[in-house]
Amino acid sequence: MTETVTSPAQDPALVRIRGLKTRLGNKTIFDGVDLDIPRGRITAVMGPSGTGKTTLLRHITGQLRPDTGEIRVDGQNVLTLDREGLFALRERIGYLFQNSALLTDFSVFENVAFPLRQHARLPEELIRMIVLTKLQAVGLRGAAELMPAELSGGMARRVALARAIVRDPMLLIYDEPFVGLDPIALNQVLKLIRTLNQTLGLTSIVVAHELSAVSRIADHIYLIAAGKIAAHGDPETLRRGDTDWTRQFFGGEADGPVPFHYPARDYAADLGFKQGSP
Ligand SMILES: Nc1ncnc2c1ncn2[C@@H]1O[C@H](COP(=O)(O)OP(=O)(O)OP(=O)(O)O)[C@@H](O)[C@H]1O
Fold this sequence. Notes:
Layout: E1 13-24, E2 27-38, E3 42-46, H1 53-60, E4 68-73, E5 76-77, H2 83-91, E6 93-97, H3 108-119, H4 124-137, H5 153-164, E7 171-175, H6 183-199, E8 203-207, H7 211-217, E9 220-225, E10 228-233, H8 235-239, H9 244-251, H10 267-271
Helix pairs in contact: 3-4, 3-5, 4-5, 5-6, 6-7
């Protein structure tokens, strides 16, 4: 089979996944998933709990190998990269997790400076300038000397965001960025995700459950369910979707293809009734 080589700059997709198949333990997580993450856009990945959203992120960053399939990030084949190649790729990706994962003994300034100090020997003046610029971008330059314990949940999330962009990544991955935020903090984080994506020319992947929040920022949504892409499109298209999956997931209905009951033995047998007894 001849491989089509596309120069990264020509490819409108920063992340291109084809024929992804993954089994973990005895469970099929992906059963032939094709997915594109367009450059410069915000793409949301949604789906029922345990459907493989975090697993997908781990595939993209090369932390977990699928059984088969192709994963390209900025033209590079993630599955054939060596250790150095993977390291270099991950250097160009920023992450924001729901728990913010700030270092509790470091000030806000030092938390944001941390990735800079870890990876390069930069003059202190330059570090100060970069960190203050990023803190300004998230509205927290004035909080530079505070400790994480002094921050609200929303502020902590914004500090983590400043840290995620401190090395000017090409791709920003948000894993459940809205969990536990009050409405004001949620609006601030949503606005920031949108603004940063535009002003920094980023590409963003957002894994989240909150459809109303996601709809306000995502250009494109992938709904993953039962190992496949159950639906994808812009938020409005998915909202109007008329498949069982879109109806249940976006309508939040209790009944549908996502079963209420975890797979179990026959109920009567479990209760000790003989077959055919009343
Ligand atoms: N190393 C592993 N070995 C076996 N099973 C695993 C492993 N890692 C994850 N799983 C299983 O794979 C499935 C997908 O997990 P994943 O965390 O990707 O789901 P998710 O869609 O992110 O879920 P949630 O929305 O609840 O965070 C789950 O059933 C999980 O238990």
